[in-house]
Each structure stands twice: as structure tokens, then as C-alpha cells.
């Protein structure tokens, strides 16, 4: 019986650490292709499969598919973009099919495994920017994170109605003796 429970625990642990991209595609990813190297010389890595992620800047539906402009962010062990306030640059990824621009919209996080096609130069503001260009093999759109709302403690300070000051905590006192009832 102990072995069964240990097996279940190990199975749950392993399934909880799944990567965003399927194993089959992950096996094709060339780990030598980092974003900084790809940015320097995108044509040197043509035909190789790269794993990149970040935040969508723009989504354009074209005749040949959906083009995503993404600003790069580092990926964690599951493939999720982390520290999205830092980026080494942007890349373009073409998905050969239709992706709804209301779902794959600006601000959403994605992880993309794709074949490097070289570079594509486009206007970015007032400059011409050379984007590394990928053809998507697999894409994962991350769920939008909802902000955590912490409720204030319903009674006194940190320790319930007793607080660090007991029943005389400032929150309890002001709740039970409002300003207009105080004596001078």
C-alpha cells in the first residue's frame, strides 16, 4: 500500500512540472540557440528550432497566417516568461493558420517553439529594426494572471481582535469609538 501512495505522489509531482511545449517538439529544440545569439546573427541559425517566449506586442492576421510581434523574456523551467520588465529585444513568429487577435492580444504571455527563418526588417517607431523571424511549430498562450486581493483583517491588528496590543489595538478602538464620540 505504501508503494502505491509513493507512486501516486511521484506521478502527481512529475505531472505538476510539465513544460508548456510538448516533449516531441522540445526534443527538436537546439539549446545552443539563445535569444542574444539569435539577435546577433539570425541567418546563422536558419533551419534550427528555437524556444523563445515573452509578451505579445502586436498580432497581425495575414494571408499566409498570423504574425506575432513579441518582446522577449527569459523562460522558467516550465517555459513561462518571467521577469517581463526586462527584455533583450523583439522577435517575429508566423503561425501558419488563424489566431484570433482578441485572444492573442497585446500584453498576453506566450511561449513559442519555432524554426528560425532568418531575419525580417520592419519599421519600429522611427527606426528599421531587424527581427529574428520564426515559423511556429508549437505555441502556448498563458492564462492571464488575476491580481491577488488581500482582505484586511476583520478585527484588530495582526493577531485578530487581540492584535499586538490586545483589545486596545488602534483598529479595534477606532471601530468601536468613532471620532465624534471621543472625549477631549
How would you characterize the overall build of this protein?
The protein has helices spanning 2-16, 23-28, 35-40, 170-176, and strands at 49-62, 65-72, 74-75, 81-82, 90-95, 109-124, 127-141. The protein folds into two domains: 19-141, OB fold (Dihydrolipoamide Acetyltransferase, E2P), CATH 2.40.50.140; 153-184, no CATH class. The strands form two sheets. A five-stranded mixed beta barrel has the order 1-2-5-7-6. A two-stranded antiparallel sheet has the order 3-4. With 184 residues, the protein is α+β, with helices and mostly antiparallel strands. Strand 3 (74-75) and strand 4 form a beta hairpin.
Keywords:
single chain, 184 residues, alpha+beta, OB fold (Dihydrolipoamide Acetyltransferase, E2P), 2 domains, 5-stranded mixed barrel, two-stranded antiparallel ribbon, 7 strands, 34% strand, globular
Amino acid at each position: 500500500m505504501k508503494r502505491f501512495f509513493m507512486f501516486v505522489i511521484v506521478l502527481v509531482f512529475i505531472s505538476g512540472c510539465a513544460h508548456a511545449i510538448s516533449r516531441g517538439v522540445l526534443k527538436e529544440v537546439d539549446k545552443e540557440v539563445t535569444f542574444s545569439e539569435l539577435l546577433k546573427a539570425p541567418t546563422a541559425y536558419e533551419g534550427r528550432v528555437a524556444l523563445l517566449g515573452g509578451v505579445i506586442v502586436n498580432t497581425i492576421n495575414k494571408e499566409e497566417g498570423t504574425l506575432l510581434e513579441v518582446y522577449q523574456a527569459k523562460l522558467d523551467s516550465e517555459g513561462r516568461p518571467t521577469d517581463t520588465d526586462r527584455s533583450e529585444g523583439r522577435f517575429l513568429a508566423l503561425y501558419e493558420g488563424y489566431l484570433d487577435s482578441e485572444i492573442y492580444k497585446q500584453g498576453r504571455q506566450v511561449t513559442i517553439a519555432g524554426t528560425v527563418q532568418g531575419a525580417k526588417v520592419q519599421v519600429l517607431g522611427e527606426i528599421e529594426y531587424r527581427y529574428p523571424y520564426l515559423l511556429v511549430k508549437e505555441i502556448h498562450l498563458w492564462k492571464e494572471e488575476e491580481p491577488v486581493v488581500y482582505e484586511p483583517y476583520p478585527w484588530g491588528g495582526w493577531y485578530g481582535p487581540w492584535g499586538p496590543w490586545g483589545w486596545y489595538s488602534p483598529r479595534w478602538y477606532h471601530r468601536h469609538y468613532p471620532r465624534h464620540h471621543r472625549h477631549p
